Input
Amino acid sequence: MLPRPQRAAQYVRMSTDHQQYSTANQADVIAAYARDRNIDIVRTYSDEGLSGLGINWRIGLKSLIADVEKGQADFECVLVYDVSRWGRFQDVDESAYYEFICKRAGITVHYCADEFENDGSLTSVILKNVKRVGAADYSRQLSKKVFLGQSRIVQLGFWRGGMPGYGLRRQLHDATGAVRTILEQGERKYLQTDRVKIIHGPEQEVETVRRIFKAFVSEGKYLGEIAGELNASQVRTGAGLRWDGTSIRKILVNETYTGSLIFNRTSYKLQQKRVENPSSMWIRHDQAFPPVVTQKTFAKAQEMMRVRREKMSDREAIARLTALGREKGQLSVAIMASADGILSAETYRRRFGSLVAAFELAGYQPELHRRRMLTATQYRARLKQLAAELVDRINDLGGRAMLDPTCKGIKVNDECRIALGSARAQNSARGQVRWRVHANRNVQAELTLIARMDASNAEIRNYYLLPTADLSLPSLKILRMSNSVFARACRYDSLEAFCRMCAGERQ
Output
């Protein structure tokens, strides 16, 4: 009589590695390994499209470890394709630590495709650590190859990715150099052998860029003054919005307008700390395309901005901020960006530690005006917490929900992905309030749940469930509260109501 099969959980992970590491191929190898050893796979944990460098967004591995630590594991071993699928942790001790958590709970980890048995013998210990070092080194070598490839792309005069800026366009070329098309916003090349070059955009946009540099460099105008003139001329940004000091500054600091392509200004290799690199480390290709402005004009603009920043003392900077707050009755990034003679919000953050600290020195207390200055990081943290709350409540109500790192939202009933976004209040100097939508419009999710804040951006007022594809429509950049039909169709006045809908309960 055969002994009772050993109960096992399998863990599979696929990032962007070769097809041999598809989750289906991993599962096939693991299944064969289990059959040969009388093992019954009773649970699957998976992470798809995720790097093995860390654990933060690997929901599958985190869930496995959590179940083990809580004593909720209904299995006796874990089956993994190989050491690299467990993780390519740069600190090999981290990889060992997660395996030790399982071992401490009496759960062994099997690496099914590797040539050793993970039985604690000296040979297996040595081979396993060699594999861990190799897995970590693979990521380092791959990072170097990617960096060298991107560097070469730039050195050859091609654009390596992202949007080049207002007044510029991306032109797609095939492997022979023939022009395919102009890539629009959000479009990407579809063949690895294709290359992208930068060309001038519409003449009106190019002339607007030159007008901005001339107004700043030759006429000595402030950023807010330039923005005001463009708005008065009915000129709009590439997104169709009004200009402000921040959007003008983005034009003035973008060296691409000189016809130069620059790479490696900053580094964020292997998900480590982001660093600013010295100019000696930059990879650049000058004269990659006809310049919009000369190098001399661009350099003069940078020098003028530097002098303006350094010339204004901290005391004068706060005094000007105080005067602006008295004039407008409040302070905000938008008000600062449209004002003349005021340093940028980023400069105030750098000098005084935060905008709130600068506002307090200027005698302005946001909380007294029912406002709370939430940073983008704080909003992301709040939405992350909201996703966890949604999963817990939907599952409590009998539905099926799980965190989905690919859309940084949730997956409901194994079929519908719901991303999360926010609608934040914008308070004008006239006392008017409107809610601007902040959401990833390119995320792979069928729906997006928008958390609408109250007028002070302190608490969530209600929720709107919208098709993600529709978020790119101009009409959905601002939530229209006056449309009663829209509100009835899309709005949930509480998180409970939304969760009950997801769980299939009647309202």
About this structure: The first strand starts at residue 6 and ends at 14. The chain has four domains: 6-141, 168-308, 312-369, 376-503. The radius of gyration is 27 Å.
